[in-house]
Amino acid sequence: MRVLIVGSGGREHALAWAIAASPLTDALYCAPGNPGIAEEATCAPVEATDIRGLLDLCRRERIDFVVVGPEAPLALGLVDRLEAAGIAAFGPSAEAAALEASKGFTKDLCARHGIPTAAYRRFRDAAAAKAYVRERGAPIVVKADGLAAGKGVTVAMTLAEAEDAIDGALTEQRFGAAGAELVIEEFLDGEEASFFALVDGAHALPLGSAQDHKRAFDGDTGPNTGGMGAYSPAPCLTPEIEAQVMAQIVAPTVAAMAAEGRPYKGVLYAGLMLTAAGPKLIEYNCRFGDPEAQVLLPRLRSDLLPALAASRDGVLKNFDLRWHEEAALCVVLAAKGYPGAYEKGSAIGGLDRLVGDASVLVFHAGTKRAGDRLVADGGRVLDVVGLGATVAEAQARAYAAIDRIDFPGGFWRRDIGWRAVRAARATR
Q1: Which residues are 334's β-sheet partners?
Q2: pLDDT grade, residue 379 (50/70/90)?
Q3: How far apart are CA 39 and CA 16, in angstroms?
Q4: What confidence tens digit (pLDDT) does each residue in 53-110 have?
Q5: What distance separates the 2 farthest-apart alpha carbons in the chain?
């Protein structure tokens, strides 16, 4: 197949790395890509949200299959447009992508179909929203309804924080149209984890688990980000809990979407809270996570491409996947200032020192070439992945690799994987 990957971040680099290894891949393209992806694929200067430009690219390069990485083009209906043009595509339709594009839609779906999630209310009026949080008390969670690049959620530990989040979205329009409506929900206590499945409209195939780190700084402090690191598998998601998640959350969601005329195809990413009452859904994403893809895909022993095609073709029922036993841990190197204002253009060196080390992978997230130099061009810049028999071993290898990279304009957490490492030590 001639394959196009849409996107330009670390997730898309991980997808390109996996798909380039498939014997089914005759030619691989990425739009717009990045310097790391350019080592695996031919990059085309077409933005991920340029629907017409992507259609033209597919026709020009005779693309057989498109894999959509980020959420924005899914919400814009890229898959619908590609399929209408006779081009096979992996990912949900715009109607099905509402599971991520509207948190209110997902909460209402859960309520209608008895899928366990936090109690909630939806608001467009700031005064009514503030009255509700005063009635409920803190801690409480305030979420922008729409797509806000991972920055639209405030876990408010005080009423003042909650009211500030409400004003930021509804009065100051901090998130634009994405924050025109808020979902305010109860604070769930427990351990957070992510579970992934491939879905073909009727059937779901488990893809594995991960835990990410949203806070910017060590000790889970600082502002929320798009993710500062992740590891897989997540020890807290035992086989028994995974079976419970499939039976009570994922399978009912797939059935509900089909019953409501929005059959879901693609990867379904369930953000979960493991509470004393059992797992509950926090939210859905409609694509591989970032940086979760960077730890899931290196653990996949099977060929990724036919699995994605089976999801699109509706034939996952008898499909199976094989996995490596080893763990993977990803540390995100970010530009100083992220997730706030950050500078672009700082130089990155030393990546050549890691070439040939089979226990380490480096995925580019926000880089570009400036002459013969590699420089930072985004908030999250590089994803360094360590592989090992345990999360602790993978962690040690990731940080040893980072110590060989020159990135004075960047910062990163030094405690990615701390929960799993602490839990492993406690059982010794």
Answers
A1: 380, 411
A2: very high
A3: 9
A4: 999 999 999 999 999 999 999 999 999 999 999 999 999 999 999 999 999 999 999 9
A5: 60
Residue 271: closest CA among 194, 330, 205: 194
**All domains of the chain, ordered by start, with CATH?**
2-91 (3.40.50.20), 119-186 (3.30.1490.20), 191-313 (3.30.470.20), 327-426 (3.90.600.10)
CA distance 392 to 20: 29
Q: What is the sign of the dihedral through the CA atoms of 271, 216, 15 and 304?
A: negative
> What's this model's pTM, rounded to 2 decimal places?
0.95
Nearest to 74 by CA among 86, 84, 82: 82
The encoded tokens of residue 358 equal 């089979």
- Joined together, the tokens standing for residue 188 give 């769930």
Tell me the C-alpha distance between 97 and 206, whole Å.
19
Q: Which two tokens stand for residue 312?
A: 């699109």
Q: What is the pLDDT of residues 137-146, one digit of tens each?
A: 999 999 999 9
The phi, psi pair for 170, rounded to 5°, reads -90, -30
Exposed/middle/buried for 150, CB within 10 Å: 0-12, 13-18, 19+?
Answer: middle
- Contact status, residue 108 vs residue 183, Cβ threshold 8 Å: no
Residues near 427 by Cβ (< 8 Å), separated by ≥ 6?
none
